[in-house]
Specification:
Length: 262
């Protein structure tokens, strides 16, 4: 009977434990939701004054040559670029909190992937050419149409290609769209190759973590938020795909968005 007693005690203890665990989980879920709502609200509130700062510094800067001397002009440009950086950070944070809260609205439809790649390329080409980089797009003759969310797809490709340009000082950046071989639903790859600084092997694991800026210690590190890849990978997952990469320090990187098949 002592066996029975201890079995009963075990059972009631387990019940108590399960109940406590459930309560803790509920508390955690509530705290998490509060955090997401807070972040979303804050991001929104912060953007309005920031846009005013960016707008007015822009106006002041345009009054060239105006009453500003070179030093003042330089300082004003710093104000502007800091504000822009902050805005980018806030926008990324808002996106991350939306994704984590499951609040991203995706609209799946038939999307012409080449059109998306071409749009991103058109938007980023001036930046690449401005740095003296060769910039090209490769795509098959036949259209590649996937059932996906156009905005998310565009944002991912924009982030990957933007990074490639940012972290490349000479050589080229290229965007390649291709259909992956295999039976079943069509699968596609959008790859961004660069001949940039690359990523040391020791940093490969942390690349997709939030706020990871593995080259930040380098002098002249281009500024960024360290959220772009984190966000892109989350979006890729929402699209049923993923981002993979290969990279060699000093040689360049290759980031692939793999989509479809699901
Ligand atoms: P960031 O806003 O800093 O670009 P990301 O999340 O997009 O943030 O990227 C994280 C880090 O990964 C970057 O700071 C950079 O160190 C590294 N990285 C990303 N893409 C490349 C690339 N194409 N070449 C070299 N390093 C890269």
């Amino acid at each position: 009977s002592s066996f029975v007693m201890s079995a009963i005690r075990d059972a009631s203890e387990r019940k108590r434990f399960e109940k406590a665990l459930q309560e803790k989980n509920q508390e955690l879920a509530n705290a998490n939701r509060a955090k997401d709502n807070f972040l979303a609200g804050m991001s929104h509130e912060l953007r309005t004054p920031l846009n005013a700062i960016i707008g007015f510094t822009g106006t002041l800067l345009m009054k060239l040559p105006g009453p500003l001397n070179d030093e003042q002009h330089k300082q004003l440009r710093t104000v502007q670029s800091s504000a822009r950086h902050l805005l980018a950070l806030i926008n990324d944070l808002l996106d991350v909190s939306k994704i984590e809260a499951g609040k991203v609205q995706l609209a799946f439809e038939a999307v012409d992937c080449q059109a998306v790649v071409d749009e991103v390329a058109a938007a980023l080409r001036p930046q690449a050419l401005g740095k003296g980089l060769a910039f090209d797009v490769h795509a098959p003759d036949a259209p590649v149409v996937l059932h996906t969310d156009r905005r998310a797809l565009s944002q991912i490709v924009f982030n990957l290609a933007g990074n490639a340009i940012k972290f490349t000082e000479q050589g080229h950046v290229s965007l390649t769209l291709r259909v992956l071989p295999g039976t079943g639903p069509q699968r596609a790859e959008i790859r961004v190759d660069d001949t940039g600084i690359g990523i040391p092997p020791a940093d490969h694991d942390k690349l997709f973590a939030a706020f990871s800026r593995v080259n930040a210690a380098r002098p002249n590190a281009p500024d960024g938020t360290g959220l772009g890849l984190h966000l892109s990978q989350k979006l890729a997952e929402l699209l049923g795909g993923k981002i993979v990469f290969t990279s060699e320090s000093g040689k360049g990187s290759s980031f692939s968005l793999l989509l479809g098949g699901g």
